[in-house]
Predict the 3D structure of the following.
Amino acid sequence: MDRSILQPVGDGTKAKNFYDDVVTIQQLLNEIAPQNGGPNPPLKVDGICGPKTKAAIQNFQLKHFGWKLADARVDPDGATLKKMNELAGAGDYKSLGFRMRRLQPDSQNAVASQTQIFLLQYLEGAWRSGIYTFSSMPVAVNPAAYPPIAFQGG
């Protein structure tokens, strides 16, 4: 799902640089591989549109649109935001789709430090599945304890 902003972000008097909008742009830029115009090193996601964020916006625009459109500003529904959404998360390998589901019924109330077990499925020719854990310590998972899940909807 494409991300949006309410007001312009970046340089100039038209840029309102609202906190949530700046965070969205910083996150989008960080999800873009450097070879596609993303920042290197990644931006600090702090909601402040400082010189590094403005430079990252302009460098992205230079790579994709040239000097004529490199105004260091991202407008809602503008070409820069559309291109950022298109490239965010696209690296050398781009899956056609994936879905992830927590397997524990009580996982909605789990604290962050507690082990979480997920079923991750991704599309590569056919749906492939794997069970993954997210934990601060090594965890042994018995796949037989988690039978296949039928997903409803998309």
